[in-house]
Design brief:
75% of the residues lie in helices and 0% in strands. The chain is mainly α. The chain has a single domain, classed as Orthogonal Bundle (MetI-like fold), CATH 1.10.3720.10. α4 packs across α5 and α8 packs antiparallel against α9. The longest helix is centred in the last third of the chain and has 33 residues. The radius of gyration is 22 Å and the shape is flat. The N and C termini lie far apart (48 Å).
Length: 236
């Protein structure tokens, strides 16, 4: 079963750069759209809220695979411009997960205690000052655990990019299966699982460090998962 383990590992690792590129690009687009749409959902204008709500419900309510096929196959036929596979994948990952992230932003901002808002009003702060200097920094701390989960889900969704020939980890595994035979399937998929697990752990580690830093910035004690472990006999 492990006769070709060296070949399998090296071939699957060759897909890691594409997987990481898709994940990082998708996360960047997700963050941008999450805050844009999430804050738009809290806007006073009904039109702004309506546009944001339409975006959120459309991308949450339709299949990510269908979205990918539309952007990669259908859209170029309509506009006459072909999007490179990786670019199409990053765009779909960002649009889809940005819709979920918008609700995270909206909920986190809404969870800031009412007294904080009233204090801003008492200090005669403008709406922009209230949001960006007081409410949003506190809300970000509440968002981070949920964004951690969202980014891990986005990482796993990068496997869909194999459908448009992006040579990421899942694509490399699909190439190996017919070449090595059915007997090596278990090894191939086992190595794939380990690769995705390691990448997910790296995302979690990074997000917990960011959570600890963000908590300190707003004067909060870090949550237990964001604290560094204290070794026996070592002062905290």
């Amino acid at each position: 079963m492990f006769d070709n383990i060296g070949l399998i590992v090296s071939r699957l690792l060759s897909g890691v750069p594409a997987t990481v590129s898709a994940a990082v690009g998708g996360i960047a687009v997700t963050i941008l759209l999450s805050f844009a749409a999430g804050l738009a959902l809290l806007a006073r204008s009904r039109w702004v809220r309506g546009v944001a709500r339409t975006y959120v419900e459309f991308f949450r309510g339709t299949s990510e695979v269908v979205q990918l096929f539309w952007i990669f196959f259908v859209l170029p036929a309509l506009v006459g411009f072909q999007i490179v596979p990786l670019g199409a994948g990053i765009l779909v990952l960002g649009l889809n997960h940005g819709a979920y992230g918008a609700e995270i932003v909206r909920g986190a901002v809404g969870s800031v205690p009412r007294q904080q808002y009233e204090g801003c009003v008492a200090l005669s702060m403008s709406p922009a000052q209230r949001m960006f200097r007081v409410l949003l920094p506190q809300a970000v701390v509440e968002m981070l655990p949920s964004f951690n989960n969202l980014f891990i889900q986005l990482l796993k969704s990068t496997a869909l990019l194999s459908l448009v020939t992006v040579q990421e980890v899942a694509f490399q595994g699909q190439v190996l299966v017919p070449n090595l035979g059915v007997g090596e399937k278990l090894t191939i998929y086992l190595v794939e699982l380990v690769i995705y697990l390691v990448l997910a752990v790296l995302i979690t580690f990074t997000m917990r460090r960011i959570e600890g830093w963000a908590s300190a910035r707003v004067g909060r004690a870090p949550t237990p998962r964001a604290r560094r472990p204290v070794l026996p006999g070592k002062p905290s």
